[in-house]
Every structure is written in structure tokens, then in C-alpha cells.
């Protein structure tokens, strides 16, 4: 009880002096423990004319970083489907870049930190575009994961010498299956991007054909009316009288 009271008094006395920001709330936990996880994201973003949008994603050294993107639709005058994409390292160095309407950027992270992905629509001065993104990291070639797997295998050999090796085979098969499912999911997202692009292109072509058909129909009706009007003017006759007779 006395210890708890003494601690309360010290907190009340030094509370104002220790009210600054805490720089390291969990000193016993490294950034690997805090951020280790296979996060993947997929969403669409609209870039206005000459706009620049940047996103950040955490990656550890040795992980495989990937970014898939595709321009789904473009609006405005003199539109251009090209998109400028750059990926910078945590220290600000350029790691990869691309300038097509769709593509994939993939590389192995050389350092741990937040990698910056920037999308620039500077090709379109007067139009906006919608871009579908799919990015993340995975750990197939990670040294830490290999070392952890080797330690687990050694421990299993020591603790389970009497058991059948079927469990280990099933575990390896499940790991490979999980990797295959993950890559299938990536390819599925890319196919979904392409289907979305085809859908928006079909809607744009349908609107274009509808407006042009209406305009051509209006021109045809107007030209028919003008032809009929001039033909009637040719057959207009005036009634003749003794004073007013038709002239040759």
C-alpha cells in the first residue's frame, strides 16, 4: 500500500514535467515485431487534371514488393491514357518507374521502411482518370522466414521423431498451396482491372454512338425540311390580273 501511495505522489508531483510526447512507447518491441505482416491492398482512385497522388506501404528487407495498376477510364479534352508511376525507397531514392496505361512493378526490398508510390496525371491538362491499384508484399524469398522454417523443422525432428512424416508433408503442401492461392489472387485482381477497363470503354462507346445517332437524325430531318421548303418555293405562282401579267 505504501509503495502504491508513494508512486501516486511522485506522479502528481512530476506529472507536468513528464507530460511530453513518448518517442518509444514499447522499447522492448522492434519494428519487425510491430510491422511484420503480409498486407495487400486493392482500390481505385480518381486523379484530376495534372494531379499527383502518393501512397506509402511498409516493407522489410528481403521481402518482395509488387504494384499492379491500370487506367480504367479517362475524361476531358484531348485525353491521354498514359500514367506516370514512381516508387521511391524509404530514403527517397528512385527504385522503379513506369509510364504506360497499365503495368506491374516488382522488386526485392533492399531496406526496411515505408516505400512511397506516386501516381502523376501530368499528361492530361484538362481531364481526369480513374486508376485501379493493387499492391503489397510477400515473403517467399525472405531470409528470416527461411531461418524460422529451418528452426521449426529442427525442433520438430527433435520432438517428434516417433511420428510419421505425413504431417510435415501436409504442412509443406499447405504452404505451397497458400503461395499458389496468393498468386492466383494477384492474377484475379489484374483480370478484374481489365474487366473494369473494358466495361468503362463499352459505356463510353455506347454514349458516343447514341449522341452521334441523335445528331445525324436531327441533321437528316433538318435537310429534308429545307429541301421541301425550297421545292415549294419553286412552285409558288401569283394570280394574274389585267394590270399585272407574268413576264418571261
Automatic annotation (TrEMBL):
PROSITE patterns: GOLD. One of its GO terms (cellular component) is endoplasmic reticulum membrane. Pfam families: EMP24_GP25L. The chain crosses the membrane at residues 211-231. Its main location: endoplasmic reticulum. Residues 52-137 form the GOLD domain. It is found in: Endoplasmic reticulum membrane; Membrane. Keywords: Endoplasmic reticulum, Membrane, Signal, Transmembrane, Transmembrane helix. The keyword Transcription regulation does not apply. Residues 1-19 form the signal peptide. The keyword Repeat does not apply. It is a single-pass type I membrane protein. InterPro entries: Emp24-like, GOLD_dom. Belongs to the EMP24/GP25L family. This is GOLD domain-containing protein. It comes from Coilia grayii (Gray's grenadier anchovy).
Amino acid at each position: 500500500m505504501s509503495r502504491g501511495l508513494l508512486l501516486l505522489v511522485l506522479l502528481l508531483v512530476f506529472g507536468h514535467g513528464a507530460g511530453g510526447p513518448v518517442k518509444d512507447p514499447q522499447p522492448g518491441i522492434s519494428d519487425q515485431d510491430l510491422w511484420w505482416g503480409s498486407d495487400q491492398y486493392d482500390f481505385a482512385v480518381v486523379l484530376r487534371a495534372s494531379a499527383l497522388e502518393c501512397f506509402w506501404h511498409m516493407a522489410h528487407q528481403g521481402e518482395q514488393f509488387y504494384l499492379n495498376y491500370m487506367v480504367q477510364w479517362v475524361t476531358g479534352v484531348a485525353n491521354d491514357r498514359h500514367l506516370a508511376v514512381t516508387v521511391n525507397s524509404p530514403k527517397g531514392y528512385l527504385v522503379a518507374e513506369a509510364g504506360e496505361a497499365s503495368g506491374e512493378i516488382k522488386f526485392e526490398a533492399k531496406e526496411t521502411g515505408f516505400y512511397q508510390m506516386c501516381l502523376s496525371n501530368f499528361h492530361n491538362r484538362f481531364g481526369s482518370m480513374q486508376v485501379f491499384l493493387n499492391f503489397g508484399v510477400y515473403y517467399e524469398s525472405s531470409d528470416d522466414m527461411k531461418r524460422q522454417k529451418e528452426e521449426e523443422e529442427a525442433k520438430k525432428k527433435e520432438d517428434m521423431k516417433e511420428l510419421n512424416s505425413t504431417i510435415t508433408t501436409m504442412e509443406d503442401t499447405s504452404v505451397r498451396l497458400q503461395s499458389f492461392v496468393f498468386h492466383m489472387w494477384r492474377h484475379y485482381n489484374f483480370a478484374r482491372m481489365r474487366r473494369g477497363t473494358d466495361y468503362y470503354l463499352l459505356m463510353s462507346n455506347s454514349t458516343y454512338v447514341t449522341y452521334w445517332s441523335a445528331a445525324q437524325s436531327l441533321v437528316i430531318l433538318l435537310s429534308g425540311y429545307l429541301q421541301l421548303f425550297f421545292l415549294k418555293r419553286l412552285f409558288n405562282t401569283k394570280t394574274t390580273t389585267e394590270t399585272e401579267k407574268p413576264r418571261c
